[in-house]
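Hey,
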Amino acid sequence: MGIRWTAAVAAVLVVAACSGDDTGEPAATPHHYLSLGDSLTVGVQPDERGRAQETSEGYTDLLYTALRDTDSTLRHERMGCGGEDTTTFVGGGLPRCDDRYEAGSQLDQAEEFLRDNGDAVTLVTLTIGGNNFTGCVNDAGTIDEDCVEDGLERLETEVPVIADRLVEAAGPNTRIVGMTYYNPFLALALVDSPGAARSTGFLDRVNTSLTDSYEAAGIDVADVAEAFDDADTEVPADSTTGLPANLQRVCDLTWMCDTERGPDIHTNPAGARTIAEAFLERVR
C-alpha cells in the first residue's frame, strides 16, 4: 500500500506541475520575442584589446528585459549573427553563421520558427543591410562607389524578399519591426576625410530603401537614424567639444571615437539603450 500511495502522490504532483501552479490555474502559454539580423542584434562590441565579441548587452537584450516586465512568460529567441548582410541572410554562405542555422540560412530558420510557433511569437525585430556597405569604406576613409552601388542594388532587391517572407510565415498577430541605421562614418570628419560627407548621401539612400521596403510589406520601422540625430549638423549652444550634434552622438553612442577600443562602428551600452528605446516607441 505504501508504495502504491507514494506512486499515486507522485503522479498527482507531476500533473499539477504540468498543468499550473498550486492554485489550480493552468500554466500560462509562453510567448516569444524573435530577434533577427546582424552584429547589432547580438550585441557585438570591442573588448579591451579591440577585438569584436558578442555580448549580452545588445539592444535586443535590453528590449527583451523591458518587455518582460509586462509579460513574464516572454522568451527571447536570439537568432542573429555578426557579419550577415542581406545576401547571406537570405541564402546563407557566411561560414561563421551557417553552423547556427540547420534550416539553411537565418531567413530559413526564422520562417521555420515562426511557422512552428504561430501567434505565440508576439514580436520580431529585424536589423539587416548595414553589412552590405561595411566593406565599402577603407582605413583611409575613402568610399568605394562601385561597392556602394552593389550594396544598394542587393538591398533594394533582397529586403523586399526578406520582408515578404517573414510576414507570410508569421502569425496574424505577430508584430514585426525593422530599423534604419545610424551613420558611424560621420566620425571620419575627425580625421578630415571626405568620406564623412559622402557617407551621409548613401546612408540616406540606405534608410529610404529600408523604410520603403518594410512599410510596403506592412512592417513597422524604428527610426534609429533619427534617434542618433543623424540629420542634425548644428553645434549645440552648450557644446563643450564644438562638434555637430550628429557627430557628437556617434562619439557618445558608438566606439568610433574611442582611442583604446576603437574606432569601431558598433554601439556601446549607451547606444544599445538608444536603439532599444527607438524600438520600444514602436512596440508600446
